[in-house]
């Protein structure tokens, strides 16, 4: 097979986004646009990929490190000038180069593969991926001659009224004979309305040199949507969301309302799990089988087991086991490990806690920086006092402990195995195993006190 290379254009500032964030780093379904593109490029068999980055786009490099080489485009003088920056890396190589924009996050590897195949079959020097969107405004138009062969691409801003009526557009993805590309790039001028070096001009240059130039039209225009502003960003989000949710449905996941469930591109969900409305699941989250997530739940970077229910809650960067019941209105903060068969109920917050198998905190608790053993019962309103104003301290609650309601466990402190803490206690010293600890003022009843008070007032 001929060698294949890829150039990903990602140096544009994205003025139309009106953002501090580099355009190609704007996320679509929780992943930067350019990463979606590189994911698809990686799925093709490519010998070398070069991403063109702008000045100050270190973040783009961080996101793509190890998956692409990089070439810097100091000044954004146009897409042809951008590709030229890959000359050192690719210029002398024999093979086919696919060029794709970092702002077309929905492009699929299978479409690029079909484009490459078409290019090979026609032995073309350049093949453009074209499409017919509902609204062609803003895109470069494909101008064909009487025989229907591609002549050139005219940018929207440079197009005549007649040319603007053309429905077929340049999607910004092309393949080229690598050497012919770098030769032709040298001949591109910036004599146009934007004063930029346009990559699409390479088509006309090759055509005039008598080379075979072709076009491959995709009927799925959604896939080639170019994101230039926040309206298109929102459209891309909707399309990608639908694509991701459908993938999960095909794999056996139920969505009660797929329109209101936002699942990140890398999330994994097991069979027979049910996703309720208003649910956002992000990052590297992995969810097992038969679980129920939502309604109105946010989960990020969590590993969740089977048959676990999480409703109206937030969980970040934590491990949650199987047969666990969380919520409504619980908050599982980072570095928590919630073991199997646990119950974390209404208005309970866990932070950096190992919460042992079968243990329960059913209502109104804060448990932070703690190790909770198995079968522990934490009564309503009980908290770990983990912070002394300077440092955080550990609370250890051993297996089988019963913490009565509204207790304060002032860390560092250990409650020994099987111990009882009386309701309303403020525990400042370790409690031995099997002990009952009562740490509160003894109740005093002052008989007839109210009547005496009333007499004095009269
Ligand atoms: C481009 C095409 C247009 C096509 C459309 C498809 C040109 C001149 N026009 O227009 O024919 O219909 O894409 O979406 O190519 N970039 C750089 N360096 C630069 C300029 C741009 O790296 O100097 C990158 C951008 O980051 C972006 C891509 O190239 O990822 C395309 O640039 P953009 O300005 O978005 O081009 P469009 O106006 O959308
Ligand atoms: Ca664009």
Automatic annotation (TrEMBL):
Pathway it works in: Nucleotide-sugar biosynthesis; UDP-N-acetyl-alpha-D-glucosamine biosynthesis; N-acetyl-alpha-D-glucosamine 1-phosphate from alpha-D-glucosamine 6-phosphate (route II): step 2/2; Bacterial outer membrane biogenesis; LPS lipid A biosynthesis; Nucleotide-sugar biosynthesis; UDP-N-acetyl-alpha-D-glucosamine biosynthesis; UDP-N-acetyl-alpha-D-glucosamine from N-acetyl-alpha-D-glucosamine 1-phosphate: step 1/1
Keyword Acyltransferase applies: yes
Keywords: Acyltransferase, Cell shape, Cell wall biogenesis/degradation, Cytoplasm, Magnesium, Metal-binding, Multifunctional enzyme, Nucleotidyltransferase, Peptidoglycan synthesis, Repeat, Transferase
Binding-site positions, UDP-N-acetyl-alpha-D-glucosamine: 9-12, 23, 73, 78-79, 140, 155, 170, 228, 333, 351, 366, 377
Necessary cofactors: Mg(2+)
GO biological process, one term: UDP-N-acetylglucosamine biosynthetic process
Pfam families reported for this sequence: Hexapep, NTP_transferase
Binding note for cofactor: Binds 1 Mg(2+) ion per subunit.
Residues annotated to bind Mg(2+): 103, 228
Region: Pyrophosphorylase, residue numbers: 1-230
Single GO cellular component term: cytoplasm
Protein localization: Cytoplasm
Catalytic site positions: 363 (proton acceptor)
Sequence segments annotated as region (Linker): 231-251
Binding site for acetyl-CoA: 386-387, 423, 440
Keyword Nucleotidyltransferase annotated: yes
Enzyme Commission identifier(s): 2.7.7.23, 2.3.1.157
Reaction equations catalysed: alpha-D-glucosamine 1-phosphate + acetyl-CoA = N-acetyl-alpha-D-glucosamine 1-phosphate + CoA + H(+); N-acetyl-alpha-D-glucosamine 1-phosphate + UTP + H(+) = UDP-N-acetyl-alpha-D-glucosamine + diphosphate
Function: Catalyzes the last two sequential reactions in the de novo biosynthetic pathway for UDP-N-acetylglucosamine (UDP-GlcNAc). The C-terminal domain catalyzes the transfer of acetyl group from acetyl coenzyme A to glucosamine-1-phosphate (GlcN-1-P) to produce N-acetylglucosamine-1-phosphate (GlcNAc-1-P), which is converted into UDP-GlcNAc by the transfer of uridine 5-monophosphate (from uridine 5-triphosphate), a reaction catalyzed by the N-terminal domain.
HAMAP family: GlmU
Oligomer status and interactors: Homotrimer.
Similarity section: In the C-terminal section; belongs to the transferase hexapeptide repeat family.
Protein name: Bifunctional protein GlmU
């Amino acid at each position: 097979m001929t060698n294949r290379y890829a150039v990903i254009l990602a140096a544009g500032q994205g003025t139309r986004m009106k953002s501090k964030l580099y355009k190609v780093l704007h996320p679509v379904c929780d992943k930067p646009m350019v990463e979606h593109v590189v994911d698809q490029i990686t799925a093709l068999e490519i010998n070398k990929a070069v991403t063109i980055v702008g000045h100050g786009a270190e973040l783009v490099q961080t996101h793509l490190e190890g998956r692409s080489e990089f070439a810097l485009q100091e000044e954004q003088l146009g897409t042809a000038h951008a590709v030229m920056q890959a000359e050192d890396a690719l210029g002398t190589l024999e093979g086919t180069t696919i060029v794709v924009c970092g702002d077309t996050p929905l492009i699929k590897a299978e479409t690029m593969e079909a484009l490459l195949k078409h290019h090979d079959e026609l032995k073309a020097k350049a093949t453009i991926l074209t499409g017919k969107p509902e609204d062609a405004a803003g895109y470069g138009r494909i101008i064909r001659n009487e025989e229907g062969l591609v002549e050139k691409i005219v940018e929207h801003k440079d197009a005549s009224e007649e040319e603007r009526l053309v429905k077929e557009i340049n999607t910004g993805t092309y393949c080229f004979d690598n050497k012919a590309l770098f030769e032709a790039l040298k001949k591109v001028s910036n004599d146009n309305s934007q004063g930029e070096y346009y990559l699409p001009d390479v088509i006309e240059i090759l055509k005039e040199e008598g080379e075979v130039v072709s076009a491959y039209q995709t009927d799925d225009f959604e896939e080639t949507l170019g994101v230039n502003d926040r309206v298109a960003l929102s459209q891309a989000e909707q399309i990608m969301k639908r694509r991701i949710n459908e993938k999960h449905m095909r794999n056996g996941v139920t969505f009660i309302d797929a329109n209101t469930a936002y699942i990140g591109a890398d999330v994994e969900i097991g069979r027979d799990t049910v996703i309720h409305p208003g649910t956002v699941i992000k990052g590297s989250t992995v969810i097992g089988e038969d679980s129920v997530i939502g309604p109105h739940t946010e989960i990020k970077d969590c590993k969740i087991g089977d048959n676990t229910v999480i409703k109206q809650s937030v969980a970040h960067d934590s491990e949650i086991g199987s047969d666990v019941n969380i919520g409504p209105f619980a908050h599982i903060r980072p570095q928590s490990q919630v073991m199997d068969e646990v119950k974390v109920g209404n208005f309970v917050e866990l932070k950096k806690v190992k919460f042992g198998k079968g243990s329960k905190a059913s209502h109104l608790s804060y448990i932070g920086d703690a190790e909770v053993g198995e079968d522990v019962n934490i009564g309503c309103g009980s908290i770990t006092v983990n912070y002394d104003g300077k440092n955080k301290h550990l609370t250890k609650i051993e297996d089988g402990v019963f913490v009565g309601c509204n207790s304060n466990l002032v860390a560092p402190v250990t409650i020994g195995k099987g111990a009882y803490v009386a309701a309303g206690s403020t525990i400042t010293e370790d409690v031995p195993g099997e002990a009952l600890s009562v740490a509160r003022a003894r109740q005093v009843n002052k008989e007839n006190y109210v009547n005496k008070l009333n007499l004095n007032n009269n």
